Amino acid sequence: ETGVTQSPTHLIKTRGQQVTLRCSSQSGHNTVSWYQQALGQGPQFIFQYYREEENGRGNFPPRFSGLQFPNYSSELNVNALELDDSALYLCASSVYNNEKLFFGSGTQLSVL
Amino acid sequence: GQNIDQPTEMTATEGAIVQINCTYQTSGFNGLFWYQQHAAEAPTFLSYNVLDGLEEKGRFSSFLSRSKGYSYLLLKELQMKDSASYLCASLDSNYQLIWGAGTKLIIKP
């Protein structure tokens, strides 16, 4: 158990819809990173939030957006869902400038 | 470009030793991570190397050569529960993790 929780665990959406995924950080962690992991691939970095501001972004379009709240929990929002967005979405929390990440169990998103 | 290479799949026998190799090319380097991921679960941290050499932690050891852009994860006394994917990740100059696709390790009795 890492202390990082994600909800929901599984989600089915249709193309064009919007989705919000949630993550609660481990106690004492102020940084949250989101990753997309396609089947058989390594995680791909989406973005990172520190003190409620985006602190780095990977190669994902603007329809992927996020928020971090004062309690350091976070949301990932994806608009205009596409079939290729089907993947495991992982949230990882850490202490800023400490590279060790603690992952949640992920949200498995299926876009039909 | 940035690239992490590791074998797609390996098979080993229970009780044996296996070495999983990883080569990396990233924009800058601030350390090399190994994570274990069981099917449909989150990755869990195994090791972090930033200096050359071998780091031993129980049955698992990790090695780094910065000049060669090379790392390996060594697993000893293999157990069936070690069947999982092993992910190599390099921390680049922006302190972002660049991940390999993972090595699926299959342990046979």
Can you walk me through this structure?
- The complex is a heterodimer of chains A (about 110) and B (about 110).
- In chain A, strand 4 (about 30-35) and strand 5 form a beta hairpin.
- Chain A has strands at about 5, 10-15, 20-25, 30-35, 45-50, 55, 65-70, 75-80, 85-95, 100-105, 105-110.
- Chain A contains no helices and eleven strands.
- Chain A is globular.
- Chain A is an all-beta fold and about 110 residues long.
- Chain B is globular and about 40 Å long.
- In chain B, strands 2, 4, 5, 9, 10 and 11 form a six-stranded mixed beta sheet that branches.
- The relative contact order of chain B is 0.35.
- In chain B, a hairpin with a 6-residue loop joins strand 4 (about 30-35) and strand 5 (about 45-50).
- Chain B is an all-beta fold and about 110 residues long.
- Chain B has no helices and eleven strands.
- Helix content of chain B is about 0%, strand content about 55%.
- Chains A and B meet through strand 5 and strand 10 of A and strand 5, strand 9 and strand 10 of B.
Q: Nutshell version of this structure?
A:
Chain A is built from no helices and 11 strands. In chain A, β7 and β8 (74-78) form a beta hairpin. Chain A has strands at residues 5-7, 10-13, 19-24, 31-37, 44-50, 53-57, 64-68, 74-78, 87-94, 102-103, 107-111.
Structural class of chain B: mainly beta
Hey, which two chains have the biggest interface? A-B, 22 and 23 residues
Strand runs of chain A, count = 11
Terminal CA distance of chain A reads 31 Å
Radius of gyration of chain B from CA coordinates: 13 Å
